[in-house]
Amino acid sequence: MSPKLRDLLVALPARQLNLIVGGVIVIALLLAWTLALRAPLAAYRQHKAALAALEAAGTATPGAAPPSASAAAITPAPTPPEPLALIAAVSHSAAASDVAVLSAAQGAQRTVGGVRLLTVEIVASARYTALLDWIAAIERQQPTVGIHRLTVEAADDTDDRAITLQLVIHDTGTPPP
Asked: Where does the sequence pass through the membrane (predicted)?
C-alpha cells in the first residue's frame, strides 16, 4: 500500500473507514456472484429441472433398460450420393437459386481414416445473394456433402461473381438398411 493512501485512511474517522471496508466487501461479493457463481447455479437448476421432468415421465428410473421405442427412433445416416447424382442435384438447386452452372466435373477420390472422399468441382456464375441461397440449399439438401473449397471473384463487367466450388462427398461405406 502506498504511504499516501495509508495516511489518507488513517486520517479517516472509524465510522467512515468501516463504511468503505463494508462497501469493498459488498462489491467483492457481487463480483464473485456475477462472475463465478451465477452461471453454474443456473445450469445446476436447469439440469435438476430436466432430471425431474425425465423422472416424472418415467424414463430415468435407475436400473431400467433403455426403452426399445427410442432405439427404433434412431434414424440411420443418409446414404451419400454418387458424384453424377450430386452434380445433377446441385445443378437443379442452382437453377432454382438463379445461379448459372458453367461446368461441373468429378474430381479425385481418396480414403482418409476409413472414410472415402469423392470430390466434385463446380464452376458457376451468380449474384452474391443468389450464391448464398444456393450454398444454403446445398448444405440443407446434401447432409453427407461438405464444402471443401469456395472461391468467389468479382467479374469485371457485371455484378455477377465467378464461383469455383469444390464439394466433398463423405462416404463411410456403410450399406443402406
From this structure: 20-41
Quote the pTM value: 0.53
pLDDT in tens, 110-168: 888 888 888 999 999 998 888 889 999 988 888 888 888 999 988 777 888 888 999 98
Architecture of the domain defined by 83-171: 2-Layer Sandwich (3.30)
More confident residue, 80 or 136: 136
Q: Which three-class secondary structure state does DSSP give residue 32?
A: helix
Query: Which residues is 101 bridged to in the sheet?
Result: 124
Q: Of 116, 118, 89, whose CA–CA distance to 174 is shortest?
A: 116
Q: Would you list the domain boundaries of the chain? A: 3-51, 83-171
Reading the block at residue 141, the C-alpha cell is: 439438401
86-108-120 Cα angle (round to 5): 25
In this predicted structure, what is the pLDDT of residue 25?
95
